[in-house]
Amino acid sequence: SMFSWLSLGMEKLIACPYKRPNALCRLICFPWAGGGTSPLAQWGRLFSSSTEVYSVRFPGRESRLKEPFAEDMASLVTEITTALLKELQEKPFAFFGHSFGSYISFAVALQLKEKHGLEPFHLFVSGAHAPNSEALLPIKSIPIRDTADEDILKYIAVLGGTPSELLQSEDMKKHLIQTFREDLRVLQTFSFEKAERKTPLSCDITCFNGSEDKPYDLAAWPELTSGDTSCYELPGGHFYLLEPSNEIFLTKHITRCIENAGL
């Protein structure tokens, strides 16, 4: 039946180890390129019972290993919005995305708003440029097809979000390189042109970044929402958010924003 297919889509797409059926709202987390659901799904333990945490599982990894990777950004976004629509209509939700996940979270928010009149009450983004920034152009020109595995590995190492034990086994290493490559390819198909005079979102947006990470162009975020935008820098590199002290800061700050939203 249609219903079981929808809930199956949901099961496939979402990791939620800390189920909170009576939560007031949901925080939907979008992982980074090459990333799985676990680190952000574990945030569930740091939130009170009023917030349920979902972590989105992209195709081609974890329990979706046998599935082909996403064709492009548009199809990935459509898959996510379709699978989550019923849940998102039930109660208020916020988004958190890191790096690649920031761009996906923004694209999903945009589609929800344009096609379904739904919007996160808060968008938390991390380790990424504003989606309407020129700074994204160099990413689009990386010749992924021709980039050697070694160079992809170097890039992954510079980003530092990969536990070294993943790189010990040849199979794991191969899979990580392929996943990262495919995620980057999807990101290159992301195109966002802000329509003249039209502000796409109305939610508040908060940007987080690591102080040792490369600087991101965040200046264009305020053009994308009629809500407030704010930025916080936390100690650390691109994966500052995996440090326990930063996790606590982030989850406390997000909790405060949820409380201020007066749900």
Automatic annotation (TrEMBL):
Pfam families: Thioesterase. GO terms for biological process: medium-chain fatty acid biosynthetic process. It catalyses: (9Z)-octadecenoyl-[ACP] + H2O = (9Z)-octadecenoate + holo-[ACP] + H(+). Residues 26-246 form the Thioesterase domain. Belongs to the thioesterase family. PANTHER family: S-ACYL FATTY ACID SYNTHASE THIOESTERASE, MEDIUM CHAIN, THIOESTERASE. This is S-acyl fatty acid synthase thioesterase, medium chain. The lineage of its organism: Eukaryota, Metazoa, Chordata, Craniata, Vertebrata. The gene is Sast.
